[in-house]
What does this fold into?
Amino acid sequence: MIITEAVAGIREKILKAALRSGRNPDEIRLMGVSKFHGINEIEEAWQQGGIRLFGESRVQEAADKFAGFSAGHPGTELHLIGSLQRNKAKAACALFDCIQSVDREALITGLGDLTAHQDRPLGILLELHTGEETKTGFPDEDSLCRAVEQVLSYPGLALRGLMTMAPYTDDERIIRASFRALAGARNRLEARFPDCDWSCLSMGMSSDFEIAIEEGSTIIRIGTALFGERRT
Ligand SMILES: *Cc1c(COP(=O)(O)O)cnc(C)c1O
It folds into this structure.
C-alpha cells in the first residue's frame, strides 16, 4: 500500500511540474529504480502502482530478480542504469531492453559485437558527464558525436537518447545547469543527426525530478521516493 501511495504522490508532482513548464505529462515516463529492493516490492509497484519501466544498477542482481519476473508480467521494460563491466556485457544484452549508462567507446564496440545476431535490438542511451562530482559519462559533445556514429554502425544497437546524473548538492542552480546541459546536447545532436531517435532524455531522481521535468526530462529514475530507503 505504501508504494501505491508513493506512486500517486509522484504522479501528482509529475503532472504539476509538466503543467508549470507547458509540457504534456504523458511524455514523461516514471521508472522504478528497484536496486536493493525485493521482488515483492517490484510486484506491488507493477500491480498496484502500474509501473512498467524498472531500472537496476547491477547485472547479477537484476538477473536474479527479473529473469523470472518479466515473462509473467508482459509489458515490463528493464533498463541498466549502473556502470557496465565488460565481463557482464553478454548477460546484460540478454536481460536488459536498454543500457542507459553507456559511457565509453570500448563498451559500444563490445555491445555492438554481442548484439550482431540478436533479433531484438538493444536500446542505448549515451551518458553525458554534466556535473563536477560524478565521474561517469562521456566528457563532452565531441566525444558524444563520435559515440553516436559508432552506435549507428552496429545493426544490433538502437540509439534512443541521452542520460545524465546531476551532482549531489542542495544547490538548485547547479542541478538545473546539469539538466540544461543535457537537454542542450540533445538539441544539438538532434540537429546534426536528425534521423535518429532522441526521444529518451533520462534525467532526474527522487530529490531533483521536478527540476528535471522543467528542463525537459522524458524518463525520471525514482528509487527512494517510491520504494523507501535502500537496504544496503
Ligand atoms: C540509484 C539511482 C537512481 C535512483 O536514486 P533515488 O535518489 O533513490 O531516486 C537513479 N539513477 C541512478 C543512475 C541511480 O544509480
Notes: The mean pLDDT is 96.
